Amino acid sequence: MNTSAKMKQNAWCGWFITLLVGMASGGFIATANPVTPVAKTPETKPAAQTSEPAAPATPRDFFNAGTQKLLAGKLREAEAYLESALASQSDRIQPPALYNLGHVRFAQGAEELKKGPAGKPTAERARNAGHAADDASRAADEALASNELDKMITSYIQGRGARKELKAAMKAVKRAMETHGSALNKWQRSDGDFKGTVEMKRQDRDAQQNAETVERCIARLVDSIREMESSASGMGDKDKELGEKLKQLKGKIPAADMPPGGAGDDEEEDDKPNGPKEGDKEGPTKDGQEMPISPEQASWLLDGFKLDGDKRLPMGQNDTAEPKARNRPTW
């Protein structure tokens, strides 16, 4: 690749990271670089001199409003307006509305990923926790067989720590799987939107390139989900096995020799099979909190959008005043 092509690709890649990371606070950012994408330009008409913008009434109004919300990073509102424009069955409005819906839903998927832990470190944590649990179980077997107090105490402390980390890793995997699943759903819809645009407008090369690009990101996401599933396999059985051995150790260690905190914290969840007891306080939840996109997520998303030469994920920078009329019906 020549120097000029590399500069253009790097410029595009830098913008894409800004898009993903900055969505919540700033929305889409456009520069004068020729490969920087922006949303399909709303149809223009003289602005009414009113204190508040009029509510959308026509398909064109809904398209304009949706595109403006997309540029502002208000994805839920953008989706609603663009869906209304799409439902109008207007041959002129449908292709650009569906195209921009593809961008809305891809951005929504990226936002979902920011709500949970990244896949790769979560999978690695699960594997490490599983290995530590296996080691602790073996140490417990040896200590029980020896019947030596010091060994049993040491093994008990080791097993309690390993089980605590195992439970935390299981929760992290569950949370990551939820957010990855939500992102997958959004990206599959984004892929369908771009493909639908191509069906309506065969000459739309941008939409075709976007569909191919989103599919590469979907493949990476599915790989991440499968890696987490594989690393988490058998964690529940390991937790149960280690818990039983800790109970055996606890039964052999005199109360006076139990380590601090050993009176029941390792079996805390076992003592509450039906949930928290009356009077227990619920801890703070992390649901709904946004987390910065991880370097790993940004990296593989970025790699998914590194296309040859000047290929990119554009949002119609070169489209002008209004969607072009098509020569055939939509459906």
Q: What does this entry look like structurally?
A:
The protein has helices at 3-22, 59-71, 75-87, 94-113, 119-146, 149-200, 205-232, 235-252, 295-304. It has 331 residues and is mainly alpha-helical. It has one domain. α2 (59-71) packs parallel to α4, α4 (94-113) runs antiparallel to α6 and α6 packs antiparallel against α7. The longest helix has 52 residues, at 149-200. It is elongated and about 80 Å long.
Give a quick precis of the structure.
This protein is mainly α and 331 residues long.
Distance between the termini: 42 Å
What fraction of the residues are assigned to beta strands by DSSP?
under 5%
Q: What's the story with the biggest beta sheet?
A: none
Global structural class: mainly alpha
The count of DSSP E runs of length 2 or more, i.e. the number of strands, is 0
Count of DSSP H/I helices: 9
| Helix proportion range | 55-70%
Low-confidence spans: pLDDT under 50, at least 5 residues? 1-39, 271-277, 280-291, 298-331
Nearest-angstrom radius of gyration? 27 Å
Shape: elongated
Instruction: Report mean pLDDT, rounded to a whole number.
Output: 74
Integer tally of domains? 1
In N-to-C order, the SSE pattern is HHHHHHHHH
Q: Which tags fit this structure?
A:
single chain, 331 residues, mainly alpha, 9 helices, 0% strand, elongated, disordered N terminus, disordered C terminus
